[in-house]
Amino acid sequence: MSIDTLHELFVHKLRQQYYIEQELVETLDEMAINATNDRMSQGFADHRDETRTQVQRLEEVFDALGERPETQDVPVLDALEEERQTYERQIEDDDLLDMVYLNAGMMTERIEMTAYEGLSMMATELELDDEVHKPLESNYDEEKSAYRELDTLATASEMKSIWDRLTPS
């Protein structure tokens, strides 16, 4: 498929974000189940539910554009997922695996925030209306919030004992 216009690039990137959000519903569910830190587990479960709503918002954007909601593979997300699964097979220590989940979550949120920033920038240049902008902004805001929660969790008092245990004296 050839991409020759900014609109075509926007739709391509939108399809990639649609892929990401759909894939993350399942991934967040798995991490919510597997994380042993209760706060982390609940955070992943809450964000999974938000992500389901984000998928619906992206479908609204497709509708506003008169495009069919389709996915486009995102190799960077697939690589992160493959890495997470590899760590799950290699790591037996629950606390260490929680650190993998924390890092994977933060990396994924950064990728998503950047993707939404790019989509918003293109939507502005294409002079698309609020039917496109508002759902993208809502999703972006939720991704920023999820990242802040993970960042806060990384320094939370309940994590200090885990960090202390995992860090050599």
Word description of this protein:
The chain is mainly alpha-helical. The protein has one domain (6-166): Ferritin (Up-down Bundle), CATH 1.20.1260.10. Helices cover 83% and strands 0% of the residues. It has six helices and no strands. It has helices spanning 6-34, 38-65, 75-90, 94-125, 130-154, 157-166. α1 runs antiparallel to α4, α2 (38-65) packs antiparallel against α5 (130-154) and α3 runs antiparallel to α4 (94-125). The longest helix is centred in the middle third of the chain and has 32 residues, at 94-125. The model has no long low-confidence stretch (mean pLDDT 94). Pfam families: DUF892. Residues 48-97 form a coiled coil. This is DUF892 family protein. Keywords: Coiled coil. It comes from Natronococcus pandeyae.
How many domain units?
1
CATH topology term: Ferritin
Helix content: over 70%
What is the gyration radius calculated from CA atoms?
Answer: 17 Å
CATH class: Mainly Alpha
- CATH 2nd-level architecture: Up-down Bundle
- The parts where pLDDT drops under 50 for at least 5 residues are none
